[in-house]
Structures are given as C-alpha cells and as structure tokens.
C-alpha cells in the first residue's frame, strides 16, 4: 500500500499546493497519531484472528480518568498511569472473556464497547471534565526537536509492536495462533495466555490513546471522545494488509494504513471538497486503493 | 495430455509432461514427493491452468479445461490428495456438492440421501448420509471422498493417494470397486506411494521426477527396483530397517493404565519400553488417533493414568506432555500440525523457541536457523531454503518438517500417527531408518499405522484396537514374526475371543 | 475598503442535521456579502472532540484568518481556540459557546425549554403527569431540559414521570423511547422532546398506539413540525423556534467586526426564542424560507 | 440462545409487571423488525465468512429515496420499489467488489458504508425529507389481524431466508463456500456468482429496511437514519450462533438474536433504567448471555 500512500500525497500536493508543507505534514501525522496507536494494538488482535471493537470506548474511559487524575493537586502526572491502567484493565477483561470464557471476540468486545462507554459517561456524570492547567499538556501539543510528541509516542508504539511481533518468541506464537490455533495448542503454546495478552495490549494501547486525547484536548467527555474509533483502527490494519483470517500481516502495513486514512481526511479538506462529497470520495478512494494494491500485487 | 508445463512464480513444477490413459485402464503415476503428480492432475481437473503450449485431448478431441466445472463436464472426477470436503456439511451434501438432486431450485433431500445411501453401501460404509463430516475421522473422510468420486459417474477417475488413511480392509474394498469400474470402461489414474498397491492395480505405470516425465512401464515390466531407480535415480537397498535390539529386556518407559474418554476410547492400558517400536493397528475409526490424543493431553480424559519411568504424570494439555518428553505427530498435518503461512524455520523451532529465547523473550534467531538447517539436512527436506513458506511444500516434505519439529524437542516418547502418510518411497525408508535410530537411542516409539506391511516391517510389538478397546497384542519373536493376517484377525473381530480370554 | 478575511473556516458539530443547513448558510452568506473573494471551507466534526480540534489545527495550517465554530463542547475546545487565537485568528462561536471565542451568539436554550414547558403546563391547567425525553448531553440539550424543569417547577401539581431517557435527538430515537414510556406509564398528559425530531418521533409512537391523551412540545421550529402543526393531525402543540440562519448571520457579522478591530461584547449574545403554536404557525418564517 | 431470550422476558416481566402485555410484545417485535430484516441478509453474508458493514448506510439511502418517491403525486407507491432498488444496487456493487475484484469484505463494505452514507446525505442535501401523507404508512404503523405489518414483513424475510438457505441448492452452496471455499470451487460451484448473490441479498434486505423505516417515520434523514445499524445486525447474527468462520449457523438463531437485542432495549426502558446505566447493563447482559449459552451447551 505504500505506493498508494505516496500517490495520494503527490495527488493532494498537486491539487492543493499546500499539502507537502512541513506544518501540514506534521498535522497529518498528529492526526494519525491516536489512530495509529489504536491500530497497533488492533494489529495484535487481528493477527490472532480476533477483533477488538471496544477500543473507541476505552479511549473515552481512559481520557476521562486521565483528565480527572490530572486534576489532583500536585500529583497531576498520575493521570498518565491512571489512563493506561484503565485501558489495560479493560483489555484484560476482554482477553479473559475471549481466551478463558471463550466468547466470540466480536460479541465479547461489542459488550465492552457498550459497557465501557457507559462507564466513561458515568464517571464524569455526562459532563465534560477539563483541566486548563493540564500538567502533561506537552504530550498533546508540544514537540521535541520539531517533532510533535504525539507523533513520537505513536511511532514508539509501532516500533515496540514490531519488536514484539518480529523479534520475540511471543510474536511468533501470535502469528502461529492466528495461522492455526489447533496446531498451536498441540505444539504446546499457551494459547490462553497469548490471547489474553493480545487483548490486554490492545486495551493498553487504547488507554494510551485516551491519555493522548486528554493531553491534546485538556478535556474529555464520556460521549464525545472516541466514537467509532474502532472502525478507523480496524480499517488501518486491514488497509495495511493484515488479514482477518489471522496469521498474516505486518505492523508497518498498519502504519501505512493509518497514514492513508489521515492523509485522505486532511487532503480532502485542503482541496476544499465539501463534507458530503468527502464521505463519497473517501469511500471510493479506500475501495480503489485496495483494488489497486491487489492488482499491483497480482501482477508483481 | 500433451506437453504440459506449469510454473509457480519462478519455480517450474512441470516441464513438458505427456500422459495418456486408455479406456478401462488403471494408469499409475509415481514419483517422489514434489515430483509434480498432484499438479498434473489438478491441471487435468481444471483446478489449475497449465502454462500455454500444452493440450488435453479426450477421445481424440482437444478440450479446453478452464475450470473445475469444465473438467467435470468432460467427465473427469478427482479424489484430491488434500481432502476437499466442506466439514460443516453432511456426507450426502458433500457427495453431491455441485450436482445436487433438485426439484426446481430446491434440493430433493430424500432422493439425494437415498442415492447417497447406495454409494455408501457400495463402499460398505456404516454411517448415515446425514452425518456431519466434521464428526468423521480422517480415514472416514477419505472414504467419503472416494464415495463422492464414485457417485459422479465420471469417465476418467483420478485418485491422488486415496488410501493414505485407509487400512487393509478398506483398501481391498477399493480394489474391488476399481476392478468393477475398469470393467465398465472407465479410465483411472492412480497415484500412490505404496508399492503393493501399484502391483495389485496398475496396467501401466508412469514416473515423474522433478516435474519431468521419466518413462512408462507396462504391466509385466513393473519391478520394484526399476521403479525406484526411475523415481529417485538411485537404488534403495533395505527398505524396512529393524536394527535395534529387541526390547524384551528393556525397562518400561511409558505406562498407560485404563485411559478413556468414554466416547471413542474405553479403557486402554499398555506399556511402552525404552527403545521399543510399538505399533497401534486397527481399522479406520477404531479409535487409535483418539487414544494417542488422550495420552498426549490433546483431549480431556475421563479416567486413567499415565506414568513415565514409573512416575505418575499429570498431563492435562499438550504442553504438559511436551514438558515430560512425550510428543505427538498428528495424522492431519495441514489442519493440526503445520503453520502453513510460516517459514520452515519457524515451524521447526516453534516447540523449543521459548527455551531458546534470549532474556526478555527475544527470539534466538541463530539457534532457530541451526535447528532448521539440521532438520533440512538430516531429513532431506526439499525446499528453496529454510525461509520457504511451509504451505508451498509438497505433502511429503511438509511431513518431514513436522517430524523435524518434534525431534528438536529431544523427546523420550514419540507418538507417530500415520508418519508415512503421503510420503514417497525414498522418504519413507528414511523415516523408517529414523525410527530405528531413535529406538536405538532408547526412545520409545508408539506408531499408529494403517499400512500393514509397514507395521509388520518396523514393529517390535503390535497392539490392535477395535471400537475403542485394545483387543489384541502380537509380539515379534525370532521364531514367529508378526503377520498381517494375525493383525487383521484381531482388527475385524475374528480373533477377539482370545483377547477377552 | 474595510479589512476582510481572505480565508475562512467553519466547523460545526455535524453537517447531517437539517438544523445545520440554514445555520451554515447564514454564516456563509454573511461572509460572502462582506468578502466576496474569500475562500470558505465548511466541515462537520461528527460530534467528536478530537476531530474538531484537528480541524482547527488544519485551519491554522491552511492560513485562515477567521474561524466560525459551532463547538462540540464549549469547554473542551478551549485549548484549540487558544491556539487559533495565538496564531492571530479571529474566532466566532455560534449556537454553542466556545470558551475563548471573540464573539458568541446563541439561542437562549434555557428560555426555549422554559417557554415550551410553560406552555405545556398552562395547557394542562397546571396539573398532570409529564415526561421529558432527554437527548445527548450537549450544552444546548442540557440547557433546554434545565429550562423545562424550571418551568415545571413552578407548578406543584405537575409530576415529572421520567427525564433520563435518551431520544438520541432523532425521530427514530424519540419513537423507540416513547414506545417504552407509553408502555411503562398508562397515562401521560404531556411530553417535552429535547428537539423537534424527538417530539415528532414521540408523536408517531403515540399515534400508533392510539394514545390520544397527551400533548407534545419540542424545540427548533423545524419545517416538519411546521408542516405537522399546519396539518393539525398531531399531538404536537408547540415548538420553541430557533432562527439558525439569523443566529449564524449575526455571529458572523460580529466576528467580522472583531476581525476589523472593532470592540465586541465578550459576554455571549443570547437570542430569544419564540413559541410556534397551531395558532401562529401561519405567520412563522421557517428555516426553509428564501433569504 | 432461546433459553436466554425467555429468561430475559421473564426477568423483565417480574421487574416491571408490564412487559408481557400484548401491546408491549408487539412493540418489541416492531422494534426488532428492521434489525431482524438486516440481520437476515447479514446471515447470508456471514455464513460465507464475509461481513457487510454497509447495511446501515444502505438503510439511510433507501429510506431517503423511498420517502422522495412517495412524494410523487399519484405515484407514491413507487417509493417502495425505488427503495428496494437502491438497496439491491448497493448490494450488487458490494458483491462485485468482494467476488470479482476480490477485496476483503471488511474493506469493500467499509468503503460503501462511507460512500453510500455520503450519497444518502447528498440526495436530500442534508435536510430531512418528510411526507405527512405517506401512502404506504400502513406498512410502518398499521397491522393485519392485530399483527403489525412491520412484524409480518420481517418474519416473511426470515422465512424466505430459511427457504433459500435450507431448502435450495443455492443454500447448500452458501454453506459449502463458508465451510471450505476451495472445496466448493473444486466441486464446480460458481463461487463468484454465489458470493455476489449473498451481498446483493444483504443489500436488498437493507433496502427493505429503508422502506420500513420510511413507512414508520414518514421521514428520512441522510445522516441520522441507520447509524451503526450494522453493529446491531451483526450482533444479532453472532448472538444467534452463526460463526464468523463461516459455514455454521442458522437463520432462526438470527431471529432469536435480534429479539434479544430488542427485548433488552425495551425492557431496560420499561423498568426505568437511566440512559447511562442502560449502556452498562446492555453490554454486560450481552456478554453474560453468550457466556451462559456457551456454558449451557458445553454441558448439554
Ligand atoms: N500452489 C503452489 N504454489 C507454489 N508451488 C507449488 C504449489 N503447488 C505445488 N507446488 C510445488 O510444485 C511441486 C510439485 O508439487 P505436487 O504437489 O504436484 O507434488 P506431488 O508429486 O503431488 O508430491 P506428493 O507426493 O508429496 O504429493 C512441488 O515442488 C511443490 O512445492
Ligand atoms: N470430533 C468428533 N466427533 C464425534 N466423533 C468423532 C470425532 N472425531 C472422530 N470421531 C469418531 O471417533 C471414532 C474414532 O476416530 P479416530 O480418529 O480415533 O480413529 P482412528 O482409528 O484413528 O481412525 P483413522 O484411521 O480413520 O484416523 C470414529 O468412528 C470417528 O467417527
Ligand atoms: Mg501430491
Ligand atoms: Mg487416525
């Protein structure tokens, strides 16, 4: 899909003349940051043949907790681990439901999508919580040597995921389970533990996404954060070439997928396409991009 | 078929192969694993398209087989090597898939099941047409495949290793049916790695090697040495190998007592001695695989105990068995054994990867490569390299990869379920040699096999199963070798009285 | 000539709601009148905070000089607005306040709820069982429900049966919630829907179950309610009208003035709402009127 | 899942005392009607191992076209075939993308989800179209011998689906493709045609759902109608025991799944659970229901 991404960038630059500026590219990457982070976690899950629908709701819950934590006088930084912990906890529950109770992943995480969303609304009692003096605001809006922190975090997430998936035994097990779960069990792999891990890490990444959102907005709202983020995250993973069948795919593909989604949103605004037409064009470009990729590969 | 070539990517699987079959002839096709037999047949059936240049003629007329439907139209039916049933459908639905009995657009279920019953009766199969295929054992599935081909009323019938999971009884039944088909003028292409089947059945034998046509022998010219020489280009001297000492005086390694799942296995006990090759024989569906899986912990058992070196083991899942030094080679390598999307390297080292890992769980790539290289060399796996995708290997080579994986765990007890399933003569003799080596090194081998000559050839002792029970034991003694007849007697129930007594 | 912006960005909570059509038109027309050459981009945020914050970033990057915002959340959007202002951009808020905006014009939503519910209470002669079909917790809806409750509080014999069900601010949602409420409560005298689609959905549900006993009020003065009121075949008796076009026009005019450097009130300007009823619907100028 | 459904009904009746009245049960079934219809089509798709994310958007487009058609003076009934045609057309496109272009179903239908939503908004130009004199209003609000038309339509959809799936050759092909696509191809089944059909019928059912929505609400809105209906439809199918792996499941299960979802929504309102808690309880009940079902079956 990399060629498609490059093609899109060139197209938008030619059409708008404003796409390829440093500021805009940095905006695109910031926009992609949260989705990339969620998609990194989602890659683990989809590689095992599962799905995690709850990430959007987890982002909301984590963002709420993170902002509320940041309001503790003198201890504001606690918002970061608190948000992460919420994500990890939700992910662990998902993992146990799938791996131990053996629910179909779609149903288990659809249940959490709904329940965690309710929880996110409940803890803020349906109001917006905000912190004008957000101690870790720099994470959301600052940059390091000109590179936004959001981008650094997202990229770090990708690199860590890559290390786990491609350089550790655990990664091999994840691919193996996705490729053939029965065979993995017969080969003595701790399938239950690995599956639990996979949902836990997706939850953790979603928690990180929530912290990023909190740091960026200085605020959170149980209902208005993270709505249908799961779809974008899954789309990034699948655009990136990971297959629902399990066992096939790569984290770099996911990065490219997430960038394609962000570039599309940004570029269409830049060239002044109206909101309605953005929907239409976005849908068609996604289809065309994957079709082109197929064609390209089948010839290559 | 004339001048057929086929390349996958950059690799040529078939190079300018020609083959002809007459009416009422059984034409056997032989060759080592990966020689291209299945590929050639898939081209004939329309599953693959050949490269441009070749042609297929039926009754002297050139036909264009551009898909499975076209192949079927030309009267070609195939029993594929890799079983191609829909596991979620019933036996009847599978047998008539794509050729349903219809009334309008609706399925005529009654007529279909009646027709299915007829076909099953021809094969003397006991299960009803409404059985869901996923509930059948591997051997039973293979019989369903045969039934499907029989029901298709084809003029040319291709059988790609139809008997790999069948025991003698079913195989002989198949012989009768083939004779019957021949009499009706149907042309049969028969692929098998089992010599005795080739002798028994074929009118002519053609041999492929490395995707090339080597030659054809007529009925009277079929001699084992010559065939093997044509296939491998060299001579295989001793086929079965039994050099290790008889195990009578050895200590007991594995001891299984009254193990059962109370569904398919009902209280089996046996001992396996160090350095012994113990074979488990029986008819299709007799519960051998299930017994092995219970020992390995792959399925939960309802009672029974397992001890190794006299110490009781608490095996609840496969992992426990592996940790104790008991490993199991599945009969269904594609579904339960291999990770087809992964490399040979990963497949070979996955069982021991956790142990090899550097701190923090990082993969020890060097060690993994060593292991894969060793497996490639000792088992003579044919592939482009250790990073080749396992799914692209021929059946026999896949089997060797799986074996390689088990050997890397340095097991004490090796349970082999149909280890030579779909393996060519050369590789087979290598596997026998390997089994012998392992036994010599004091490893206990429990081997399940449906191929009686093989059982007779390698076993020190044979247990025979029927209906989930061990009904007989035959030990090899210098004066009294194990015979196929003795095994069959137990397996079919003729000699059951002895065992009960 | 006056100083006018060359690039303008407009972001609204969502574009897919009939209310936002005249709202956006009001803002766009006003910009076009003052600065015919200006390049105007309009986008919807799908009620997503991150999305709206991103859109403002995009506006900053693409060099807009004026942002008109209908914020997803008044407080949460503050940091983004601060950034925009730091970049020298004038920010005008309309319909929903946005902390830090230079000017703010919005409907007096508390009042909208108040007059609708007061009307309901008066029609019931100060006595009866009522339900409030709530909506998503955005400020306009919260204010309306607050206003409505204030109004009902003035009538000791009015009893609120339910106020915690979400009609999703849509016909479909209003319909489903109302069906449940109708089963739960054998008698309902009046219904307040947080917006017109909710009220219309509730009306359909009551009609289908043949429940004649109640009267319904909503907020918006939307064309479909106008049509219903005119037809007379409805339990809807009133809707507090908003004038999205005029509201957006007013906000944009003020923002343009602020852009020119003229001092503007920092307090939000609250536009009064008028109650549309069957009696005065004939003279009501609706959203779909030509301007 | 039938026991779970019955349990839920009994529970709500005990808690509210008003659940099991004729009127309320008829309301529940009406609420389930559209989702049941979508889920019936979705069952076909999921049985082949695919997914159709676009049904919610198709409902919106079809409802828009249906209402607009109903406004044609003297020819208002044209709204019905018009709505169905829109659904069928969208479904066919999905089918061709999946079966011929061979895109992953998730991506193909995610593309249509977006593009068709844009189309639905475009044709109404983002306003609500309405018809106070809807000629086929009886379909949405009338009843026949006391049974609401909506329920009759939905039930008819289920019966037709059952006939196709269990009594026709085509149905066998659908199960076969889901069970083993390669085997189906080798058996000479026209996999491409069957897959196209499956998405087409899902589109057609979604079109029907749009007509039902139009008849029920007398109005349609490109953005607000059908939002995330796909999730509910998929949930009904999976709750009903159909597996994502393909080839396993039944249409009656889907009916039960759709009823469970409707009973939950209705019952929670009846017993006066607040909106936020509805989220939480709904999520937990879905998880518990499937877990119970698993447990029950593993023992049975
Ligand atoms: N789909 C495929 N893609 C790439 N290579 C393939 C494919 N199918 C077969 N091959 C290669 O073609 C060669 C011939 O394979 P084929 O399956 O025809 O062998 P065979 O003679 O049937 O062997 P066996 O006795 O093991 O079944 C092998 O080297 C195999 O790796
Ligand atoms: N999943 C299952 N559910 C129900 N019955 C099964 C299942 N798997 C196997 N069986 C039945 O259990 C019996 C024993 O099967 P098993 O696989 O152990 O036989 P086997 O002796 O190894 O035969 P084969 O040579 O065919 O592999 C068979 O009759 C088979 O139909
Ligand atoms: Mg072969
Ligand atoms: Mg077996």
From TrEMBL, chains A, D:
A GO CC term? plasma membrane
- What is the predominant subcellular site recorded for this chain? membrane
Provide this UniProt record's keywords sorted from A to Z.
Cell membrane, Membrane, Transmembrane, Transmembrane helix
Q: Write down the Pfam families for this protein, in alphabetical order.
A: BPD_transp_2
Bilayer topology: Multi-pass membrane protein
Q: Name one GO molecular function term.
A: transmembrane transporter activity
The signal peptide here is none
Where is this chain's protein located in or outside the cell? Cell membrane
Protein name per the record: Ribose ABC transporter permease
**What is the scientific name of the source organism?**
Pleomorphomonas carboxyditropha
From TrEMBL, chain B:
Q: The organism sits in which domain of life?
A: Bacteria
Q: Name one Pfam family in it.
A: ABC_tran
**Which residue intervals define the domain ABC transporter in the entry?**
1-235, 248-492
Major location category of this protein:
membrane
Q: Which PANTHER family match?
A: CARBOHYDRATE TRANSPORT ATP-BINDING PROTEIN MG119-RELATED, D-ALLOSE IMPORT ATP-BINDING PROTEIN ALSA-RELATED
The family assignment reads:
Belongs to the ABC transporter superfamily.
Q: What is the source species? A: Pleomorphomonas carboxyditropha
What protein am I looking at? D-xylose ABC transporter ATP-binding protein
Look up and give the membrane topology term. Answer: Peripheral membrane protein
- Location of this chain's protein in the cell: Cell membrane
Q: Which residues form the signal peptide?
A: none
């Amino acid at each position: 899909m990399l060629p498609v991404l490059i093609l899109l960038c060139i197209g938008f630059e030619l059409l708008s003349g404003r796409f390829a500026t440093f500021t805009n590219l940095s905006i695109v990457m910031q926009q992609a940051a949260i989705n990339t982070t969620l998609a990194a976690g989602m890659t683990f899950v989809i590689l095992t043949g599962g799905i995690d629908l709850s990430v959007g709701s987890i982002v909301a819950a984590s963002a709420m907790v993170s902002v509320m934590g940041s309001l503790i006088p003198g201890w504001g930084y606690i918002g970061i681990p608190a948000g992460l912990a919420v994500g990890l906890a939700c992910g662990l529950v998902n993992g146990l439901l799938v791996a131990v109770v053996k629910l179909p992943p779609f149903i288990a995480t659809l249940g959490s999508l709904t329940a965690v969303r309710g929880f996110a609304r409940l803890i803020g009692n349906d109001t917006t919580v905000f912190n004008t003096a957000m101690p870790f605001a720099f994470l959301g809006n600052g940059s390091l040597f000109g590179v936004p922190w959001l981008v650094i975090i997202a990229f770090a997430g990708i690199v860590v995921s890559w290390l786990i998936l491609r350089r550790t035994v655990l990664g091999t097990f994840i691919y193996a389970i996705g490729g053939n779960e029965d065979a993995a069990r017969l080969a003595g792999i701790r399938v239950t533990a690995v599956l639990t891990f996979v949902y836990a890490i997706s939850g953790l990444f979603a928690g990180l996404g929530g912290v990023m959102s909190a740091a960026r907005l200085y605020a959170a709202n149980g209902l208005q954060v993270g709505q249908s983020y799961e779809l974008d995250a899954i789309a990034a993973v699948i655009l990136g070439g990971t297959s629902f069948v399990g066992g096939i795919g790569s984290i770099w593909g996911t990065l490219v997928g997430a960038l394609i989604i962000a570039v599309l949103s940004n570029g269409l605004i830049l060239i002044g396409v109206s909101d309605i037409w953005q929907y239409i064009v976005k849908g068609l470009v996604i289809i065309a991009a994957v079709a082109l990729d197929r064609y390209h590969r089948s010839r290559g | 078929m004339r001048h057929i070539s086929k390349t996958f990517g950059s690799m040529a699987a078939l190079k300018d192969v020609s083959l002809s079959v007459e009416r009422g002839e059984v034409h056997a096709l032989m060759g080592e694993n990966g020689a291209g037999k299945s590929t050639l047949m898939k081209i004939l059936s329309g599953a693959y398209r050949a490269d441009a240049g070749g042609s297929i003629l039926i009754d002297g007329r050139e036909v264009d087989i551009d898909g499975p439907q076209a192949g079927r139209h030309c009267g070609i039916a195939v029993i594929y090597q890799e079983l191609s049933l829909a596991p979620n459908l019933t036996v009847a639905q599978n047998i008539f898939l794509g050729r349903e009995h219809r009334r309008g657009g609706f399925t005529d279920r009654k007529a279909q099941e009646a027709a299915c019953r007829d076909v099953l009766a021809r094969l003397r199969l006991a299960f009803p047409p409404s059985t869901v295929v996923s509930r059948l054992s591997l051997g039973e599935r293979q019989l369903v495949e045969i039934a499907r081909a029989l029901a298709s009323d084809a003029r040319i019938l291709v059988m790609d290793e139809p008997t790999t999971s069948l025991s003698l009884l079913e195989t002989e039944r198949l012989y009768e049916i083939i004779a019957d088909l021949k009499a009706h003028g149907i042309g049969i292409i028969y692929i098998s790695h089992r010599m005795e089947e080739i002798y028994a059945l074929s009118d002519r034998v053609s041999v492929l090697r490395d995707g090339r046509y080597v030659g054809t022998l007529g009925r009277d010219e079929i001699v084992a040495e010559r065939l093997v020489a044509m296939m491998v280009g060299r001579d295989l001297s001793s086929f079965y190998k039994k050099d290790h000492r008889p195990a009578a005086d050895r200590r007991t390694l594995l001891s299984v007592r009254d193990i059962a799942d109370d569904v398919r296995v009902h209280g089996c006990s046996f001992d396996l001695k160090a350095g012994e090759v113990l074979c488990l024989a029986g008819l299709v569906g007799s519960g051998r695989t299930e017994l092995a899986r219970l020992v390995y912990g792959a399925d939960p058992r309802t009672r029974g105990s397992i001890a190794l070196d006299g110490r009781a083991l608490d095996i609840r899942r496969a992992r426990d068995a592996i940790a104790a030094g008991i490993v199991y080679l599945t009969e269904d390598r594609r579904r339960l054994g291999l990770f087809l999307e992964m490399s040979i390297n990963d497949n070979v080292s996955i069982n021991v990867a956790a142990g090899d890992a550097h701190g923090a769980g990082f993969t020890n790539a060097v060690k993994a490569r060593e292991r894969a290289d060793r497996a490639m060399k000792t088992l003579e796996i044919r592939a482009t390299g250790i990073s080749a995708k396992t799914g692209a290997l021929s059946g026999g080579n896949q089997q060797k990869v799986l074996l390689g994986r088990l050997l890397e765990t340095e097991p004490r007890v090796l349970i082999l379920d149909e280890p030579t399933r779909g393996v060519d003569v050369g590789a087979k003799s290598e596997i026998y040699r390997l089994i012998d080596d392992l036994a010599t090194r004091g490893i206990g081998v429990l081997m399940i096999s449906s191929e009686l000559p093989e059982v007779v050839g390698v076993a020190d002792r044979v247990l025979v199963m029927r209906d989930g029970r061990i009904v007989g034991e035959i030990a090899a003694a210098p004066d009294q070798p194990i015979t196929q007849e003795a095994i069959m007697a137990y397996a079919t129930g003729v000699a059951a009285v002895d065992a009960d007594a | 000539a006056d100083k006018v912006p060359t690039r303008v960005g407009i972001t609204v909570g969502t574009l897919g709601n009939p209310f936002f059509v005249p709202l956006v038109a009001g803002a766009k027309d006003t910009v076009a009148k003052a600065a015919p050459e200006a390049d105007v981009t309009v986008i919807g945020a799908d009620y997503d905070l991150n999305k709206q914050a991103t859109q403002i970033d995009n506006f900053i990057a693409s060099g807009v000089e004026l942002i008109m915002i209908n914020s997803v959340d008044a407080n949460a959007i503050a940091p983004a607005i601060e950034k925009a202002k730091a970049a020298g951009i004038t920010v005008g808020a309309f319909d929903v306040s946005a902390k830090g905006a230079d000017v703010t014009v919005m409907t007096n939503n508390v009042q909208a709820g108040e007059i609708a519910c007061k009307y309901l209470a008066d029609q019931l002669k100060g006595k009866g069982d009522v339900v409030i079909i709530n909506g998503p917790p955005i400020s306009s809806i919260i204010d309306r429900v607050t206003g409505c409750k204030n109004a009902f509080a003035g009538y000791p014999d009015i009893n609120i049966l339910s106020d915690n069900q979400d009609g999703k601010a849509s016909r479909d949602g209003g319909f489903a919630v109302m069906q449940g409420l109708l089963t739960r409560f054998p008698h309902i005298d009046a219904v307040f829907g947080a917006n017109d689609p909710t009220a219309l959905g509730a009306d359909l549900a009551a009609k289908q179950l043949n429940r004649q006993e109640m009267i319904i009020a909503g907020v918006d003065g939307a064309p479909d309610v106008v049509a219903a009121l005119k037809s007379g075949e409805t339990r809807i008796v009133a809707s507090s009208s908003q004038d999205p076009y005029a509201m957006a026009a007013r906000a944009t005019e003020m923002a343009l003035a602020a852009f020119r450097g003229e001092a503007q009130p920092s307090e939000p300007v609250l536009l009064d709402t008028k109650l549309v009823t069957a009696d005065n619907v004939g003279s009501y100028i609706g959203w779909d009127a030509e301007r």
